[in-house]
């Protein structure tokens, strides 16, 4: 065997520095999973039936153009069908966006800490991540993000509201930011948690995209719609960008099951949004209780809360795990806790209270 063969295939050196995506820990039989910002509810009946019906034909490839879902989305958002691009979860659409805009030598700007896939998908494309620290209030530092723009910048990812802090950017700041970004740089408004927003001063990205050819919106069926396991998300983007997304996406990525369940979800939206409202009310209750316990808390507009625990992050996560609640620690920074079913939230609150008293 030659030396080269013994060493195995040569892989791209740029992969060496890339962390692998860490999923939220799975819950054991006797614990609650509050680590992945999932929706705690079971699928609505109509949605489950649509998925089950589609399961009967999984010997066939899905509709590659996802015509029915695309048209449903186009109608709902009042955009041309050509502006809708689907993917296996919005994370894969985000990856397609990076692949469509940035390669070696190019830069991708995003806030940090934000969605942990951003640096990964940037480096997978061979591009350079430019993380810009959040402000002391856990918000995007839009001025610093503008200052980070160079002639090599190709893409800016804006997570609104931000994962993991839950803080949302309001209209005047976001409009000012978009006006200052050069028109040849694509700005992605990642609105994975849009449906949980209750601050009316936060703009709808779809409205911002309409008159701005360099703005694109990302949405997902994984969170409010409760289809995380089926993997379907989408971008709304002007035609050149949407067309590029169809080129960089993996063909036949979105299964028929996912397509049909997503269509059924849109048609069952009223019922779904009642559930979302219940989660928002739980968020209000949990946030108030945490403040009552003495935790300094930023206002979350998403389906999770953020505790900046610094050095105590890992200890808190361990204490929560021991009590039966799996949370998401970012060691040295803080813990993100999804708003789940009431019993899970109550258990989390009792852990938080005990921890607060201890330190
Ligand atoms: C901000 C943000 N964007 C995108 C995603 C990806 O979600 P999905 O790929 O399930 O649509 C997530 C998931 O956690 C997220 O937090």
UniProtKB/TrEMBL annotation:
It catalyses: an aromatic L-alpha-amino acid + 2-oxoglutarate = an aromatic oxo-acid + L-glutamate. Keywords: Aminotransferase, Pyridoxal phosphate, Transferase. Gene3D superfamilies: Aspartate Aminotransferase, domain 1, Type I PLP-dependent aspartate aminotransferase-like (Major domain). Residues 31-341 form the Aminotransferase class I/classII large domain. It is an enzyme of class 2 (transferase). Its EC number is 2.6.1.57. The keyword Transferase applies. The modification N6-(pyridoxal phosphate)lysine is found at residue 223. Residues 1-30 are annotated as: Disordered. One of its GO terms (molecular function) is pyridoxal phosphate binding. This is Aromatic amino acid aminotransferase. It comes from Streptomyces tateyamensis.
